[in-house]
Amino acid sequence: MDKKISAAITCVGGYVPDYILTNEELEKMVDTSDEWIISRTGIKERRILKGENQGVSVMGIAAVKDMLRKSNIDPKEIDCLIFATVTPDMTFPATANIVATEVGAVNAFSYDMSAACSGFLYAVAAGSSFIESGMCKKVVVVGGDKMSAIIDYTDRTTCIIFGDGAGCVLLEPNTENLGVIDSVLQSDGSGEAHLHMKAGGSRMPSSHHTVDKRLHYVYQEGSAVFKSAITKMADVAAKVVERNNLKSSDIKWLVPHQANKRIIDATSQRLGIGEDKVMMNIHKYGNTTAGTIPLLLWDYEKQLKKGDNLILSAFGGGFTWGSMYLKWAY
After folding, report:
1. CA 181 to each of CA 37, 51, 151, 244, 268: distance values in angstroms, whole numbers, following the listed order
2. Which residues of the chain have pLDDT under 70?
3. Which of 77, 167, 310, 321 has the fewest beta carbons closer than 10 A?
4. In CATH, which superfamily holds the domain spanning 6-177?
5. Fold classified for 181-327
6. Distance CA 153, CA 148 (A)
7. pTM of the model as a whole
């Protein structure tokens, strides 16, 4: 009998820009303080992609090239490339198309996935389906955002939170019961009221009026988003743990979306996991939206061992949220 095929992560890559935006620098831009930012978010600094004509594709390309260097695979072998982002280079073509061509993945079909901070989880779930069905042998999933492009740096409630960065993973078939085991993905469109960008889409196309009214920036009602995130991100992580009969002692790492340290703490407490088992880099990168989870895997790669149980969890605009159970494959 053929063994069941699962989709396993076999390599990771990442990239963050050189420019570091510190809390001290933000103190000079808006009415805030280092102490206030750290106590409420856990963020000390974030990376910003500077320069003319620099889109999120720049970071996605760098992340995939980093992964290709480590994996030694020929980019022509890549069957599919999915880019999770809410800050594409342009409305079309898909940023994934640009990245695939630039890295030499000329045989891959590629497309963008828009699910805000949960985008990377959604994209890994989709990529895994291509592997499990036998349609693809090598799928690259990129998660990244240039949030600095849509953040109002006069708005102290949002400009302290977000940064720029991108990470990626290579998915390949596995028959050892490693890789993506289970996932729970959810969404609720009523969240639009609390977290959105008003202009730039087909409902409110760009115009002098929309630019003058500063409608091309992230709008967030912090308390409403925080309340939903703190329960939903923990709920869905608990659900995936329960239905796979895992105990807290079975979980080697919680890999949580890096939105706010208090939300991360609530999720780890719900699962009964100590801080020593929680991946964290929010202090140095802030919230890179679809980039946070792959950047965690990139930062912690050397600490991961074959067979480790990982619980990934995220919550984002939409609202979108989800959790995934995967066993590390190398």
Report:
1. 37, 41, 36, 9, 20
2. 1-2
3. 77
4. Thiolase/Chalcone synthase (3.40.47.10)
5. Peroxisomal Thiolase; Chain A, domain 1 (3.40.47)
6. 9
7. 0.97
